[in-house]
Design brief:
The protein has 384 residues and is mostly helical. 68% of the residues lie in helices and 5% in strands. It has four domains: 47 residues, no CATH class; 134 residues, no CATH class; 119 residues, no CATH class; 56 residues, no CATH class.
Length: 384
Amino acid sequence: MTRAQVWDGVAAMILRQPRPIVDQQVDSALARMTKKTVRHWQKEDEFCLTFEEQQRLIFRLAEIEVADEMFNAELRQALSEQAAQMEIQITDSLALLVPRVRIVIDHFLLTRGEAFAQAVVAGNVRRLDLSDIRDHLVSEVAANGDAGAGAKIVDLISNTIEWLLNSGKEATQTYLRRFSDSYTLFAFLRETPDVQVTVAKMFSHGDVWLDTSLVLPIMAETLLDDNEERRFTNLLRAASDAGIELHITPGVLEEVERHLNLCITCLNTGAGAWHGRVPFLLSAYAASGRALGHFRSWLENFAGEARPKDDIADYLREEFRLTVKSLEEDMNRANMAFRSAVQEVWHAAHERRRRPDFSEIVTVRFSVESEGRKRKGVSRFQGL
């Protein structure tokens, strides 16, 4: 495509923005993408995707198509179950109802994205709810001439959508989040030409607690060469530069320190006698091509032998302005129903993420400590 064709294509999607601003932003984006995901022929001023990017997009499109089919299947099942509960016969009209429900969901996600984008740009963010779904359904049913069955159809579709949005399976939730994110981004583009500046303003204040699953990768990224991209490191530094306060809990600090010990234990045991997964940092070090004999000295960048947890805390504070701060007081202020819900999510996450032997040890330890502290009026959620 020529540069002019790219300009026209983007401008057609965001008609509210002045054309000179759109063209300027497109040029800036093309400059960032050149040599990464697009190739630029300067003489003709034409652009095309790299072969790798074409293959990636083909794979993603196939992935989305499979997700779309799975969502339609779950939507048909949800409609059938809701109809059975409401004693409505929809066997013959099920194939017609599915696309209609999809239209309502798309409209809801788009309008919510627009409302959110407008609220952010105006600096007046408030909680968004599902209250306008029924109003849209009434208008949609009337437009399709379903006055006779209107009330039943409205109730059936609204109940089905509410169930999908709140109680759907993981695949459906992932699919809906993907569409919601897309519509929200699209709405931002229609409200402001520079989405990055607006989003940066939105997240320019606040406190964020990080999990071990983000702390370990930033430590591993110190193994990368200077010309390699440090994604996690750049993310944290950008957040810190934007004014976000970054923290870890004492429980996460303890988990990081124990991970270092586990790496040493694995190294001393040897690959043949070690059972289970190789610890992340040791695996990353080996993948970098460095000699394993120098692994211990590399770990000394983060912690010594005398006071390892203090060393790790100092390293994270100096390199990433990341401080150790407990969430215990916040958890004590939370009601018991919320705390129980968080604990349930925590258990489910560990059951999915951890190998069976480790998951059981961690989960049981958490449960014992949590129950013991509840009797004293304290709940320990360190390491979330």
